[in-house]
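FIELD: query
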Amino acid sequence: MSFDRRREALATRVGGVADGYLVTKLVNVRYLTGFTGSNAAVLVPADGPPILATDGRYATQAAQECPDVDVLVSRRLGSDLVEQARAMGYRQLAIERHHVTLNAYDVLVAASDNRVSYVDGGETVEQLRAVKDEAEIAALREACRVTDEVFGAVLGYLRPGVTELDIAWGMQEEMHGRGAEPAFDSIVAFGHNSARPHHQPTTRPLEAGDLVKMDFGARVDGYHADVTRPVCVGPPADWQRELHALVATIQSEARAQVVPGAVPVDLDNANRARIEAAGYEVAHGLGHGVGLEIHESPFLVPDSPAARLVDRVAVTVEPGIYLPGRGGVRIEDTVVVGAAGAEPLTSSPRELIEI
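FIELD: result
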């Protein structure tokens, strides 16, 4: 992955606003440097070499993972990077105000010794992360391929008597067997539990006639997949078949609108209009970005600040309709925006599968 290009893009945005950007959000540090440890910060100057700070536990790892940056070994990450900035004559640093706690800010102010001031750098790194490079898309594609394989394997686990927890554990084992790990805690919901959008698996056993909702994904090289598919145990009841057909149509129409130039808020509004026109309530937004985080910019929700979609932005498209006490259907795919529209990276069957 071209970490130097990512840092150059950040430096370009910082230039004219501050002398450098002090990045303390760990996932953003990974994006900019490749460092995968649990404690780090990085100073990206507007003009100059970056400095990665981490503690002694990760000195060797940082040198191996980040050979193209200077590594500062310290437990006072932010403070020592500010002192480095002072030594280089920097007078103003951008910080991740949305991430820095009040306590951490107090530490930075103390380290500045009134010689460095701070400005809000905004979610600049998150905005850069929204547009994936080829290596990131390849990692997402592999995570989705594994996820599709796991879905096919887990269908064989579904039989009366198994519990939601059994299936969730089976998913995890199938992912590990393919060299991946869970992108998030899998949602496995049987029967009326499927009416809960984010149900946590329980010991509830599978029964004939149940509508099953499975929302899960694999993580590969730090990149997350996300898919949701419904399954019916035995022949579907009329209401189950009709509900699935409606959600499938809505999801297909929504995917067709995920194109370059589309506005996230407008996509969500259109999805809400479809669900409400069918006589149902809207329980959640249309989708969200995916990448190094399972939920990242852009968010396809009513108050999304995201601008228009562009090529190589990866998002989920996941409309759902939920009937309390009966069951619910959500159909979700991870897609990447391209010139031809939304390319689904997940390809598990979208029809209602009967077990």
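FIELD: remark
The first helix runs from residue 3 to 14.
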